[in-house]
Write a structure and sequence with these properties.
The protein is mainly alpha-helical. The chain is built from 16 helices and no strands. The termini are far apart.
């Protein structure tokens, strides 16, 4: 009997409860020691938010179009340089004075276009920050207005007349193209769309950049070399094509908005091959201008370079799937690559 009483005492419920109560307390302390520090976790969230914000700004800014401006204005500015001694630091300082206000103007133009085309972009380009809701409409308006102020403000402080009138012409044309007000919204007219892009882009990409460098930076009398003439003629055709080709992947949204672009009216196939034909005509004109050069080396280079580019364009066009918006968008981006190359080639035209 005594042994049985001892056994009952050893299995007392209270002692059993105390035994197992201590175990989870020990585990809780151990688990807490491995939790990440709140500060490190918050820092990671902040870094990810910053990266996400920069990525949204990159998409909003359409940097591929800005790089076209950089290439065109840079090589057109180089045409104003007579000798290498003018490059450092005069040329690069002067070029920065030109490109900074035009960068802000570029941001104003693409931002205004996204604000005006918000409903269309929800169909055609839902990945854009305004269309996706990443940027609010109010913040978009404030941002776009700020860029416009920064563009003209910085140009006014620099004091370059070619830069200022270039900004003014580009602003007026592209605002008229985008904004939906009486007698404006030139986007609805193919003729006005082509005119706005061709004049606005050749002005800011080529003519004004050359004159800014020649007259404002280098303080020399204005002369117009053959290479500038070629760049203006060929680029005007390229920019007209850009104005039409950009609508090829956007037919669905333009139809829904009632905007009868050339691609909507004639269909993507006709407009696509019309654009290709115009580009081939531009290369033909470049070959003729190059062949008339009095310098043999310039003649050979200009003719052969443009013949090769015309062939590459033809091959690329024939490999484009006209039923695929992705393929059409890829071809549109390919046109900008041709623009980059053309700006380099024009440097050697004499």
């Amino acid at each position: 009997m005594q042994n049985n009483i001892i056994i009952k005492t050893s299995l007392d419920p209270r002692s059993t409860f105390d035994k197992y109560e201590k175990r989870p307390l020990i585990n809780a302390v151990t688990t807490e020691s491995y939790e990440p520090k709140p500060q490190a976790h918050n820092s990671k969230i902040i870094i990810e938010s910053i990266i996400h914000g920069f990525d949204n700004f990159r998409i909003f800014s359409r940097f591929y179009a800005f790089m076209g401006l950089v290439a065109g204005s840079f090589f057109s500015s180089l045409l104003a340089v007579d000798n290498l001694s003018q490059l450092f630091p005069t040329f690069f300082n002067g070029y920065l004075q030109y490109i900074v206000p035009h960068f802000f103007m570029h941001l104003y133009i693409v931002g205004l276009n996204q604000l005006a085309d918000l409903e269309i972009d929800k169909i055609n380009k839902p990945y854009l920050p305004l269309a996706s809701g990443e940027f609010s409409y109010t913040n978009g308006v404030i941002t776009v207005a700020s860029f416009l102020f920064l563009s003209f403000g910085s140009a006014w402080m620099i004091g370059s007349k070619p830069s200022l009138w270039s900004l003014l012409v580009t602003c007026m044309l592209m605002t008229a193209y985008s904004i939906n007000l009486p007698f404006l919204r030139w986007k609805k007219s193919t003729t006005l769309t082509v005119m706005a892009h061709a004049i606005g882009m050749t002005t800011s990409f080529n003519i004004a950049a050359f004159m800014h460098m020649k007259t404002f930076v280098l303080k020399k009398a204005t002369t117009y070399p053959r290479s500038l003439f070629l760049a203006t003629v060929v680029m005007a055709i390229f920019f007209a094509v850009v104005a039409m080709a950009k609508d090829l992947p956007d037919i669905e949204g333009d139809k829904a908005a009632g905007i009868k672009t050339l691609a909507v009216r004639l269909g993507p196939k006709r407009v696509f091959w019309f654009c290709v034909s115009l580009l081939e005509i531009a290369y033909g004109a470049a070959i003729l201008i190059g062949a008339s050069s009095p310098f043999l080396w310039s003649k050979l280079f200009t003719v052969s370079a443009h013949a090769i580019m015309a062939l590459i364009l033809w091959v690329r066009a024939n490999s484009t799937d006209l039923s695929s918006n992705i393929s059409l968008q890829s071809f549109y981006m390919f046109i900008f690559k041709l623009i980059y190359v053309e700006n380099i080639v024009t440097l050697l035209v004499r």
